[in-house]
Structures are given as C-alpha cells and as structure tokens.
Amino acid sequence: MAEADPGIFARLASVPELAVADAAALDRQLRAATAPFIVRGLVKDWPLVGAGLRSGRQARDYLVAHARDMPFTVSVGAPGSDGRLFYDAAMGMNFRMARARLGEIFHQIDAAEGRADAHPLYLGSVDVKGYFRGLHEANHVPLGTRTPLASIWIGTQTRIAAHNDFPDNLACVAVGRRRFTLFPREQFRNLYLGPIDNTPAGRAVSMVDFHAPDFTAHPRFAEALEHAQVAELEAGDALYIPSMWWHHVEGLAAFNVLVNYWWRETPKWLGQPQDALNHAILSIRDLPDDEKAHWRDLFDHYVFTAGPEVTDHIPEEARSVLAPMTPDTAARLRAFLLRQLSK
C-alpha cells in the first residue's frame, strides 16, 4: 500500500497519551473523557499480541485455533486499489463480499504474502464471542459495569474511509500497526460525506482520499485538518474514540488485527438517532420552507429543549412518551412507529 503524503500527517496534532495503572483507573479515564486518548501497552500481555509479535503467520494460527467451524464474511478488494475499500467510479463498491472458513481465508493471505498483485482482504466487525471459542476470555479488557460488544477486525494492508459510530469505542491493536486520523463531531461539514443509504459498511463516509486529497474538489477539508488528530498505534496499544468522532483507519502492516469494544452510556432500549435522521429526510426535508421552519421549532420544543413547558400543564400520570422514557414507553412508541411506517 502506498504511503500517504507524510506532510499531511506530520503537521497534525497527536492524540494525547494517558497512563492507567489498572482497570479502575481506565474506568475513571473513560468516564471523564470528552476527546480521544491513547493508552500505550494496555493489551501488551494478550496471548494474541505475543503471537503476532513473533509473526503474522503465528497470529493467524492462534486465531484459527480459536475459530468456530463456520463461514466468515470477508471483503475482497481489487489489486491496485492501494488497499482502499471504497466506492468505484459508478458509486458501487470497489470490493466484493465472500464467505469462507477462517483457515481458508488465511490460506489466501499466506499464498499472497509479498505479492504486489494481491487482493486486499478485510474481515470487519466480527463478533468475537459468536465466531470464536475462548478468544475473548484470553484476550479482553475489563470494562467494569459496561456491557460492550467486542468485535475483531482482521486484514491485510487496508484503508477505511473516515466515518463515525454512535457508541463509544475502545480500539485495541493486537497485531500489526494502525494509523487513526480523527476529527471532532462538528467537522462533518468539512469531510464531504457521501450517501447515507449507499455506504461501504453502514455509515456515511468521507469522499476525500486521505492519501491524495484534492483540495480543489474538497477545499473545506483543509479546515478539517486544522482540527484533526493522528494516532499511530503499535501492537498492544489502545485508543479511545468518543461517540460520533470521525475516524479514518489504516492497517499499515502486512497483517493487522484489531479488537474493539463498543458501548453506549444510554439504555439499549432507546432508539437509534440515525433512524430519526433517515425518517426526517423522508418526511420533512422536501416540505415547503415555511413548514420546515415550523417542524424545526417543534423538534426544538419536544426534543432538543424539552423544557418544563412541554409537560407542566399535563397531569403527570397522563404524560405518556412526553415523560422521561422508560422501557415500557419506548416499546410502546416503537410499536406505534412500526404501525405507522407499515401503512
């Protein structure tokens, strides 16, 4: 994979590094954090990290030994794509999806090692507990009372376009090296996002090629870079990414493995904000301007401000979904929405 212009990354601020002595200290840092931070060596004692430090092949053998006998989904890129899993010229995908046992996928990586015409291979967001036996128990970060989703990301040299995720994220490099380029939430306007319903992996992505940014086509990207931070991670290092921060991810070694933990501080029974955005595009965006202005006021009244004037005049026992949400009222509202959307 060709390296990005080093000048771009050399002038970016580095993500701060923090030291944590134990799980309790990590918990305190996570609860207090409002921006990304790195913990060097957080998972350096993982057996998977040790295997990878010996060789990529030993890391693959370790993973195969724990893999369940079931097909894995792998993204297969095109030779000459510089490892970038992205759109093609027609705004389709420049990669295809395949399914195979993990050992078969790794056999392809072994066979192509060192070849310039190799297909980039990438297994993204694989559920650790669902697809492996004992891997989580031997290689995990204790996160206190959180109940995170543990996922593993495995691949050759790849580039994943800048995107964001709703949950908080602790990303741990187990094998290889990774570079994360991060942007605060509000920089979305300067990242030139693509479609929200036709995406490489479910989230809108930046259309900017970070290895060769076109500042004529994307002039506001220069402003985004003024707010960017970069994290260069080795095996054993971990990076905390707050919810909704944008991140461009590169696997820099011939073989790379990352384990990440996603969690949300809000209850799981609350809805997904992206669903509300999608429905607003469907139902509000193309209304006349005066009607859109009225709906903006209503959203501010009921959602973004939601002050006492919304409910003080309604008997407490009759406030329904206008009262603080509970699992029961969330379920009732979800059922109502499903009925409405099915008409």
UniProtKB/TrEMBL annotation:
Entries under Gene3D superfamilies matching the protein: Cupin
Domain JmjC: 117-278
Pfam family, one: Cupin_8
Domain of life: Bacteria
Matches recorded under InterPro entries: Cupin_8 (IPR041667), JmjC_dom (IPR003347)
Record-linked SUPFAM superfamilies: Clavaminate synthase-like (SSF51197)
Protein name in the entry: Cupin-like domain-containing protein
